[in-house]
Amino acid sequence: MNAPSENPADLDRANPEAEIAARAEAFRNWGRWGGEDRLGTLNFIDAAVRVAAAGLVKTGRVVSLSQSFDMNGPQKGWRRRTNPVHLMMDTGTDAERGAQGFPHGIGGADDHISMPLQCSTQWDGLGHIFDHGHAWNGRRAGDVVTSDGDLVTGIEHAASVIVSRGVLLDVGRHLRPDTGELEDGYAITAADLDATIEAQGVSSLVGRGDIVVVRTGQLARTRRDGWGDYAGGPAPGLSLTSAGWLHRSEIAAIATDTWGFEVRPNEFDVAAFQPLHQVVIPNMGLTIGELWDLEELGAVCAESGTYEFLLSAAPLPITGAVGSPINPVAIL
C-alpha cells in the first residue's frame, strides 16, 4: 500500500472520509504500547530523554507559554466554551471590616474559578476525539468516556509525564520573514516543517520524544487586531497531509499558537471538521496543545539562534478529564 500523499494538491477535496481513513490506517499506533496503554505517543518520553533535555538549560531563563486565564479571552460560547469566571469569596474589604470572624486580627482572601478546561492554553487529552466511535487504542468510545468522565485515558495519567525536550518551529517567521505571520487558511505541510528546520539549524532537528511547538504568528496578529474569530474561525495550521510527518518523527506531543492546531477552514470543499484531529488523537495517540503563547519564545529563539529547550507542561490531574489548562514553561 502506498503511503498517503504529503502534497495538499493531491487531496480529494470532495472525499474527506477516504482521505481521513487512509491516514488513520497508515499511521495507526493501536497496540504499539500494549492493549492497556493510556499515554499514546507520550510513551516516547523516557528518563534518558528527560536527562538530555535537562542538559539544554544554559541560562536558567524561564518563558511562560501560556495565555491569560481571565474574562478578556477569546471564547465566544462555541460548544459552551466561555472565558474563565473568577470570583472572590473572601477579600481585603471583608478583613478590614472584621467580617470574617477570625481571631487576633488575622484576615485573608480566597477565590473561585469556573471555566471550560479548554478555554485557554491547554492540552487535548486522548479521550477528546473519536474516530467512527473508537477512542485511542481501538477502544469503544462509550467504554472510555461517559458522564463520569474519561474512565481510561483521563488527563490525570499524564500529570508526571510531560517534561521533555521542546523544539520551536517558527514557521511563521521562516515563511513570512517580513511579518512573521502566516495568513489565515494557510496549510502547513511536511515540506514547510522540514524547510523551517533546515533554516533554523541543528538545534531544531526533531527527534523521538520531543515536544514540538509550532508558531504561526496568528496570536500576534490577534493581539494587534482584536480577538475576532480567533477561537473557532479561520486560522493557519497543520495540513491533513502532515500526518505522516507527525507519525515518523516519533514526537511525544505538538502544540500551536492557534485555536484548532490544524488549518481552518479544513482542506475540503464539502463538510469536514478537524480531520487531522480525527487521525492523530484516536489513531496515532498524539497529545495536542492549543492556544499557546509563543511570541516571547519566538523572539528569544530568533535572537539566540537556538530553538531547543527544556519544556515542562504538566496538566492538572483532573480525574477523568479529556483536556487540561496548563502553564507550559520553556527553560533555556
TrEMBL record:
Quote the SUPFAM superfamilies the UniProt record gives: Putative cyclase
Q: Which Gene3D superfamilies match?
A: Putative cyclase
Keyword terms of this UniProt record: Hydrolase
Please name the top-level EC class of this enzyme.
hydrolase
Statement: the UniProt record of this protein carries the keyword Ribosomal protein: no
EC number(s) recorded for this UniProt protein: 3.5.-.-
> Does Metal-binding appear among the keywords?
no
One Pfam family of this chain: Cyclase
The superkingdom of the source organism is Bacteria
InterPro entries in the cross-refs: KFase/CYL, KFase_sf
Protein name listed in UniProt: Cyclase family protein
Name the species this protein comes from: Microbacterium psychrotolerans
